[in-house]
Amino acid sequence: MDVTITVRVCDICKDRDKPATRYSLTPDGDETVTRDLCNEDAAPVLAVFDLTPEGAPESVPSEDKPPAQRKAPAAKAEKKAPARTTSRRRGKTPVRTLEEIEAAKKAAQS
Fold first, then answer.
1. pLDDT tens digits along 17-26
2. Whole-model pTM?
């Protein structure tokens, strides 16, 4: 027993989850152009003919009210590090004078 399943997919977005409808347009004197389109991708084509896709919500006239404005987030007080009274040395690097370094070099050569 052979089973064949045919799935129509939108030619533009290729989304298998959206139902697609086959549309054919025939310009004067030209060949017919056929496309499978989902409601979202067919909307511009249908708008030319003042149609809405089946299953698409009708556009509800909106009130003449400006869009909501977002408020900018309040500036947060920056946390500053406390001022350092003394600088500390990090790690265990020994502090030497130039004379001590030169003396260590001479001692290493002997």
1. 888 889 888 8
2. 0.43
